[in-house]
């Protein structure tokens, strides 16, 4: 099984090199960003499994990065910072960080924190797989094994891309999926014309899902950001 994809957000070159070398030596896959704007772009484009985040970035505070990512994703964020005051730790954790590692740190401790997070990810994935291969949300049912979907007991006639969109949304119910994440997962790239195509396919999918276009139940648009599947009681 592939190791998680780690996004390393660190502007200090020696520290960044230490972290990425450690990850490479231990067979982790990784991406690197040197500022907050690039970190947010990489996170939305590649949907990494874990983020290692420095707070002292040149363009914005790391807490802002956490708050931005938390507005559309629950992916684990481990802060690695020279800020050792309790108030700094509390601020980062309250913003949505999952763990906090203070510089200077040992390579062994970093790897231990990653293993703990990886075990939690594996446990959550196993729980999701064991729960059911069928997704039910209100009158919508998606049979992942059968490769089909139903609304109020009637099979939906979806194109392959519409079905893939529906699966991506349903497997991330309650989360905002960015245009970049969706286009990367559908076409393996994210160009302007792909986003335009995404809007077209999303519109046709919604026509099949939403009886009342003026009062959508299942898919919510976040203008300029992406889409989210709502949980229907």
TrEMBL record:
DNA-binding span(s): 132-231
Q: Name one Pfam family in it.
A: Response_reg
Asked whether the UniProt record includes Transit peptide among its keywords, one would answer: no
Q: Which domain of life is it from?
A: Bacteria
CDD domains linked to this entry: REC_OmpR_KdpE-like, trans_reg_C
The alphabetized UniProt keywords are: Cytoplasm, DNA-binding, Phosphoprotein, Transcription, Transcription regulation, Two-component regulatory system
Query: What are the GO cellular component annotations?
Result: cytosol; protein-DNA complex
What is the protein's major site of localization?
cytoplasm
Gene Ontology biological-process annotations: positive regulation of DNA-templated transcription
Localization terms from the record:
Cytoplasm
Q: Which residues form the OmpR/PhoB-type domain?
A: 132-231
Membrane spanning residue stretches: none
Name of protein: Stage 0 sporulation protein A homolog
Q: Which organism is it from?
A: Marvinbryantia formatexigens DSM 14469
């Amino acid at each position: 099984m592939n190791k998680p994809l780690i996004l390393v957000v660190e502007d200090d070159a020696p520290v960044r090199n230490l972290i990425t070398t450690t990850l490479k030596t231990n067979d982790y896959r990784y991406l690197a960003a040197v500022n907050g704007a690039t970190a947010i772009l990489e996170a939305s484009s590649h949907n990494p499994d874990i983020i290692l985040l420095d707070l002292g970035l040149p363009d914005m505070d790391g807490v802002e990065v956490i708050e931005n990512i938390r507005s559309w994703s629950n992916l684990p964020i481990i802060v690695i910072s020279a800020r050792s005051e309790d108030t700094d730790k509390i601020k980062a954790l309250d913003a949505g960080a999952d763990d906090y590692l203070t510089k200077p740190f040992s390579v062994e401790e970093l790897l231990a924190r990653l293993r703990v997070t990886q075990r939690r990810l594996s446990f959550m994935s196993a729980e999701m797989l064991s729960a059911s291969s069928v997704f039910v949300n209100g009158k919508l049912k998606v049979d992942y094994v059968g490769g089909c979907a139903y609304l109020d007991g009637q099979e939906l006639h979806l194109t392959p891309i519409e079905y893939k969109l529906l699966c991506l949304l349903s497997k991330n119910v309650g989360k905002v999926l960015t245009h970049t994440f969706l286009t990367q997962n559908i076409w393996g790239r994210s160009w302007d014309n792909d986003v335009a195509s995404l809007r077209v396919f999303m519109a046709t999918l919604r026509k099949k899902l939403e009886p009342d276009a003026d009062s959508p139940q299942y898919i919510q648009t976040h203008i300029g950001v992406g889409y989210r599947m709502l949980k229907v009681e």
